[in-house]
């Protein structure tokens, strides 16, 4: 993004209080763009001078419309239900991901916002099937085949965003240009959703095994690569780029397919822990995840614990699915930069993490025991079936 061309632009970021939204906002701010961060929660860090934070809910149309006044581009990042126990709150997932997106589109039209970049996910086409070097010609996964409500609602929302492309803005001031970036799993120093959960499992001694085919490959994207892709996409919606991204989806990743567990090896060993050598069958872990979800539904109202794994997480981490970046390279000019886990490891160490003598609490002992009991139950139920299979 050219700072001289963008100096008078005002950009709004829904989900601007989150890890990626805040990082995107700070990058654009340093480039001379006026930034509005819009979120229900305050950012994790102090908002830099010159940036604005508006506390609001995308589920409330009036709050969205008020914040969108005078905005020239919206990055719609806000979503809910990506991982852990969040995946099990269907109503909130529906409200945020579908109703919230409808409100953002409506507000763009009413406030004559000409550009909107939507942060989507690989999951709109993936539901547990093997995909090798897939591209944007792949059809959406049928909604009834999605194993979780987050993926289902993100698919619905992406369709709405792309269908809104070229729709008229109120007041006869042109049309709305939209595109969608289908992101791989995000990592980077300070990431607050997935990596802390992984580290907590490591520190509690729960990371004792890996699962699935060691040749299975998945993808990740460093936060700064995803920032780059969003900025390029917003530029590619402009007239001087011939609106090349208008109405288009793009897969975005680091472009380096890797086994999920090998990807995390530098983090595990960098914090001083041994990497597991025990490998379990994918079906066994999927069954364990199913039982864990059932336990959550039974006792979650009394004790809102974090499920060890959900079924969707088993698919996303254990089944091969990776995609070509050719379209993003050709139309956006996207080139993934190479990052490693050293900065992530150093960030966690600076927060006091790393292997040390730790006394296990009664709470940890209890949930370790629950995990062992669930695993034993699944093994006993699964073993007769496995022994009966022809090999």
UniProtKB/TrEMBL annotation:
PANTHER family, sorted: BIFUNCTIONAL POLYMYXIN RESISTANCE PROTEIN ARNA (PTHR43245), SHORT CHAIN DEHYDROGENASE_REDUCTASE FAMILY 42E, MEMBER 2 (PTHR43245:SF51)
Protein's name according to its UniProt entry: Short chain dehydrogenase/reductase family 42E, member 1
Family recorded in the similarity comment: Belongs to the 3-beta-HSD family.
Key word Oxidoreductase present: yes
Annotated TM spans: 280-299, 365-383
Pfam families recorded: 3Beta_HSD
One of the protein's GO biological processes: steroid biosynthetic process
Sequence ranges assigned to domain 3-beta hydroxysteroid dehydrogenase/isomerase in this UniProt record: 12-281
A molecular function GO annotation: oxidoreductase activity, acting on the CH-OH group of donors, NAD or NADP as acceptor
Originating species: Ornithorhynchus anatinus
Keywords, ordered alphabetically: Membrane, NAD, Oxidoreductase, Transmembrane, Transmembrane helix
């Amino acid at each position: 993004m050219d700072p001289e061309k963008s100096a008078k632009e005002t950009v709004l970021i829904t989900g601007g209080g989150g890890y990626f939204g805040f990082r995107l906002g700070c990058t654009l701010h340093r480039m001379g763009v006026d930034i509005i961060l819009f979120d229900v929660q305050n950012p994790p860090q102090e908002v830099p001078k010159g940036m604005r934070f508006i506390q609001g809910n995308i589920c409330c149309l009036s709050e969205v419309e008020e914040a969108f006044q005078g905005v020239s581009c919206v990055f719609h990042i806000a979503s809910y239900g990506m991982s852990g126990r969040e995946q099990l709150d269907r109503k909130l997932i529906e409200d945020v991901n579908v109703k919230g997106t409808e409100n953002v589109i409506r507000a763009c039209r009413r406030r004559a916002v000409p550009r909107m970049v939507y942060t989507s996910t690989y999951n709109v086409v993936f539901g547990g099937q093997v995909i090798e070097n897939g591209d944007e010609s792949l059809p959406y996964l049928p909604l009834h085949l999605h194993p979780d409500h987050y993926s289902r609602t993100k698919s619905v929302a992406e369709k709405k965003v792309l269908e809104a492309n070229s729709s008229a803005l109120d007041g006869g001031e042109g049309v709305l240009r939209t595109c969608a970036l289908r992101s791989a799993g995000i990592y980077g120093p300070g990431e607050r959703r997935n990596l802390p959960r992984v580290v907590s499992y490591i520190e509690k001694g729960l990371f004792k095994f890996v699962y699935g085919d060691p040749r299975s490959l998945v993808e990740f994207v460093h936060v700064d690569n995803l920032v780059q892709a969003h900025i390029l996409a917003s530029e590619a919606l402009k007239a001087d780029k011939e609106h090349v991204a208008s109405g288009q989806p793009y897969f975005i990743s680091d472009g380096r397919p890797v086994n999920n567990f090998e990807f995390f090896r530098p983090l595990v060993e960098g914090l001083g822990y041994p990497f597991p050598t025990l490998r379990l069958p994918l079906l066994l872990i999927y069954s364990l995840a199913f039982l864990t979800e059932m336990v959550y539904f039974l006792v979650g109202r009394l004790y809102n614990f974090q499920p060890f794994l959900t079924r969707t997480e088993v698919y996303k981490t254990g089944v091969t699915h990776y995609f070509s970046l050719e379209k993003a390279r050709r139309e956006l000019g996207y080139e993934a930069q190479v990052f490693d886990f050293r900065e992530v490891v150093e960030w966690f160490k600076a927060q006091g993490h790393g292997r040390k003598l730790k006394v296990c609490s009664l709470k940890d002992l209890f949930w370790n025991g629950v995990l062992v009991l669930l695993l034993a139950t699944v093994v006993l139920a699964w073993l007769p079936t496995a022994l009966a299979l022809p090999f």
